[in-house]
Amino acid sequence: MLAATGLTQSASADEPYKILNSSQTMGTGRIDYVYADNDGRRIYVPRGNQVLVFDLDTLKSVGAVTNSGGHGVAVDPKTHHGFSSMNPVTMFDTTTLEAIKSIKVEGRPDGILFEPATERVYVFSHEAPNVTVLDAKDGSIAGTIDLGGAPEQAASDEKGHVYVDLEDQDQIAVVDANTLKATAHYSLGGKGGGPGGLGLDAKNHILFAMCHDPATCVILSAEDGKILATLPIGKGTDSGGFNPSTMEAFSSQGDGTLTIIKENSPNSFEVEQTVQTKSRAKTCTLDAKNNRIVLITTEAAPAPAVAAGAATTPATPPSNAEQGGARRRGGRGGPAFLDILVVGR
User: Fold this and answer.
1) Residue 115, Cβ density class (10 Å: 0-12 exposed, 13-18 middle, ≥19 buried)
2) Is domain 31-146 in CATH 2.130.10.10, yes or no?
């Protein structure tokens, strides 16, 4: 039986990643980050003035946090408190999806992170203060952090360090989670610019910075910032991560690709696969239980069908500007499908 199990696992690992499941939900409003609550088995997608909530296993809708929205969500699995990155920040009960309180913060909230070792929530802003830190238990403000740049994504090693990519500085900032002070800045050394996604192998202390220009993953030591390798990724990254169960980093891109990077050893890395997803599916999150990656995007709904016998007028082809406007309305606020894609083996 043990031999058979080993063979099954080996065969599964050899299978390519592909889209295993997907769903579409009509709605309006912009989207940005997607968040998987692995303990609560839910997916959170801020859209417009609400946070849409889906079952992580079935993708079925389970409700919404109304009068909220924002850019992203972070959840404390112990207190069942969720936080939506906006101003004011919405703190809500993940069981009832009812709002608990509004928390006024400074800056322009964008990304967000739950740091489990200290049970705090990091709200990131491209304006000062770069980070507002909240106590996940009651939503009180624990402090602010000056990073000296515009933060995008972050990761915690759960041992006192939080790593934050600074998009406008081409750096990774290192934050002491206990003192809430930036202790170091690691330069990407011109190997990649505009980091938009970040993965962390906490066990081996390795960072994966997913960059826009050039479209590159810069791999570096989390201990001293030494650059270990660079690998190509798709264009338009805005999110990434690392799965310690498979020893793979991943980066989602707006060009409709998902790059999978295999860590063969702490000194050996390779692009394992480029998965075709959907256009503008540039943010992602990890379903750690099933070793699957969840991505989101929007796409315009098809034009309504013309009834049989109805009079029609020859259509004038839309101008390039009109076509661009339609794409923006569908993808950035107007009526459009929200697509949720699940990629796995």
Assistant:
1) buried
2) yes
Euclidean distance between CA atoms 135 and 118, whole angstroms: 9
Are the CB atoms for 29 and 51 separated by under 8 Å?
no
Q: Confirm whether pTM is higher than 0.85.
A: yes
Per-residue pLDDT band for 155 (boundaries 50, 70, 90) equals very high
What is the domain partition of the chain in residue ranges?
31-146, 193-302+320-345
What does residue 28 show for φ and ψ, rounded to 5 degrees?
-135, 160
Spatial CA neighbour of 119 closest among 37, 164, 183, 178:
178
The CATH number of 193-302+320-345 is 2.130.10.10
- In order of 268, 298, 304, the CA distances from 319 in angstroms are 49, 22, 20
Residue 185 has pLDDT above 70, yes or no: yes
pLDDT digits (tens, 9 = 90+) for 40-93: 999 999 999 999 999 999 999 999 999 999 999 999 999 999 999 999 999 999
> Cis ω on the peptide bond leading into residue 318 (within 30° of 0)?
no
